[in-house]
Amino acid sequence: MQIVETPSKILKKKLEKIEDITPEIKGLISDMKETMKLANGIGLAANQVGKDIALFVIDENLAKENNVPEVYINPELTLYSKEESAVEEGCLSVPEKWLNIKRVKKVKIKAIDENGKKIKFIAKSLLAKVLQHEFDHLNGILITDKHE
Ligand code: ZN
Fold it and tell me: What pTM does this model have?
């Protein structure tokens, strides 16, 4: 799949909730995983491949290391710590740019996976940063919007 790059409008859009996990959506999920891998990304949101639905995937190894799913549908995110740290982030939709982004260290996420199974856990470290980055995409927010 082609990765959408800034300044495309869909990257600025708040994405629609998914009501039904159709075979098309399951197909999209596997295409997104492949696209992310080929692009050496550790996360990819649906609008980055031109779909305006609330879905993102994260890197297989990052998911395994943390024992969490790779697919997040209709996620809700709570900032779980006041403590923040800044890390340099890149984005497949903002090529060649690395920006120092301040984010909280821990988040709590609720979502469903591709089988409709409920997901709920608290994430820290790199995983917490990736979840915040991808969740931002679903709300139309890019690293260039967060950078001070
Ligand atoms: Zn991104």
Answer: 0.97
10-residue mean pLDDT profile of the chain (148 residues): values are 97 97 98 98 98 98 98 97 95 96 97 97 98 98 89
Strand partners, 122: 108
CA 92–ligand 1 middle distance (angstroms) = 6
Q: How many CB atoms lie within 10 A of CB 117?
A: 10
Alpha-carbon span 83 to 116, nearest angstrom: 32
How many Å lie between the centroid of ligand 1 and the Cα of residue 118?
Answer: 24
Q: Which residues are catalytic?
A: 134
Beta bridge partners of 25: none
Q: How far is the CA of 147 from the centre of ligand 1 (A)?
A: 13
Alpha helices, DSSP H, located in 7-139? 23-38, 60-66, 125-138
